[in-house]
Amino acid sequence: MSKIQIVENCSEIGAGTRGSSLSIDALKVASRNIKSNLFKKYKSVVVPNYNDVLDQPVKFPKALRIDSIIKVCEGLSSIVGKSLNKHNFPLVLSGDHSNAAGTLAGVKSTYPDKRIGVVWIDAHADLHSPYTTPSGNVHGMSLAASVGYDNDKHRAHELDHLTQQQWDKYKNLENISPKVNTDDIVLVGLRSSEDPEDYFIIENNIKKISVEEVRRIAPDVVANEVLKYLSSCDLIYISFDVDSLDCDLVSYGTGTPVMNGFTEQEASSVINHLLIDKRTCCLEVVEINPCLDNKQNKMAETALRILDQATSIIEKRG
Question: How far is 24 from 84, CA to CA, in rounded Å?
Answer without folding.
Answer: 22
